[in-house]
């Protein structure tokens, strides 16, 4: 009897867990669609609830505000970017290739995620606000610093300058997408090539001896 009762309790617990996961996923999927179509500022909790199929009470069991779910969705996107760019960077054999592969992975990922470009375009100032306080973006910056250090020794670029360079590389990629529009006004291959050349122009001030720089 005890085993049977325990088994029933376990199944009930698993069912509740599955229901919670399904509800949360439905709310997040609905919020993503709403934020992509009209933006977070114009959206209401009612918009999200109506699209999700859950009740308002269920929504508030998971998120207190629309801003809270926007933060979750933004951080999830940032984490995907961090993982994808980290994997791409591992294949680089020099600083220029590192930038090229990283920017390419970043732009390809955004274009592969349904609604990502619309999410960014319609929520630019909110995404910016998330970017510069995000622990995930700080992790992305730390990863980039490690990768750059493979090719730029401390004798050439100090740790402080390396941190600054990493932040600027990330910011340039973000701003390029913010200003590129949807679809991008410039093709993704052209954009990641431009970003690579632009950033390398700055890094070459340290990497290339003065006498060897183009006139």
Describe it for me?
The protein contains ten helices and no strands. By secondary structure, the chain is an all-alpha fold. The protein folds into two domains: 14-61, Arc Repressor Mutant, subunit A; 66-206, Tetracycline Repressor, domain 2. α1 (2-38) packs across α2 (45-52) and α9 (159-180) runs antiparallel to α10 (188-207). The protein starts with a helix and ends in an 8-residue tail after the last helix. The relative contact order is 0.10. The model has no long low-confidence stretch (mean pLDDT 89). Residues 21-81 form the HTH tetR-type domain. Residues 44-63 bind DNA. This is Transcriptional regulator, TetR family. It comes from Methylocella tundrae.
CATH classification class of the largest domain: Mainly Alpha
Low-confidence stretches: none
> Into which percent range does the helicity of residues fall?
over 70%
Please tell me how large the radius of gyration is.
Answer: 22 Å
Shape: elongated
GO molecular function: DNA-binding transcription factor activity; transcription cis-regulatory region binding
Pfam family, one: TetR_N
DNA-binding region: 44-63
Protein name: Transcriptional regulator, TetR family
Quick rundown:
The protein is mostly helical and 215 residues long. It has helices at 2-38, 45-52, 56-62, 66-89, 95-112, 116-122, 124-131, 135-149, 159-180, 188-207.
SSE arrangement:
Blueprint: H1 2-38, H2 45-52, H3 56-62, H4 66-89, H5 95-112, H6 116-122, H7 124-131, H8 135-149, H9 159-180, H10 188-207
Helix pairs in contact: 1-2, 1-4, 1-6, 4-5, 4-8, 5-10, 8-9, 9-10
């Amino acid at each position: 009897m005890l085993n049977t009762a325990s088994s029933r309790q376990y199944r009930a617990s698993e069912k509740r867990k599955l229901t919670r996961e399904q509800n949360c996923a439905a709310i997040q999927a609905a919020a993503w669609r709403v934020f992509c179509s009209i933006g977070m500022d114009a959206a209401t909790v009612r918009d999200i609830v109506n699209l999700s199929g859950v009740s308002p009470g269920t929504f508030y069991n998971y998120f207190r505000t629309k801003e809270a779910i926007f933060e979750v969705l933004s951080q999830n996107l940032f984490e995907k970017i961090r993982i994808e760019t980290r994997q791409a960077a591992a294949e680089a054999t020099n600083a220029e290739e590192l930038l090229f592969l990283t920017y390419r992975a970043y732009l390809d990922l955004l274009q592969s995620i349904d609604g990502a470009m619309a999410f960014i375009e319609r929520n630019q100032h909110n995404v910016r606000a998330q970017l510069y306080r995000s622990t995930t973006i700080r992790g992305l910056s730390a990863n980039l610093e490690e990768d750059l250090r493979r090719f730029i020794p401390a004798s050439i670029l100090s740790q402080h300058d390396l941190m600054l360079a990493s932040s600027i590389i990330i910011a340039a990629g973000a701003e390029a997408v913010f200003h590129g529009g949807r679809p991008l006004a410039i093709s993704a291959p052209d954009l990641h090539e431009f970003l690579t050349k632009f950033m390398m122009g700055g890094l070459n001030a340290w990497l290339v001896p003065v006498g060897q720089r183009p006139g």
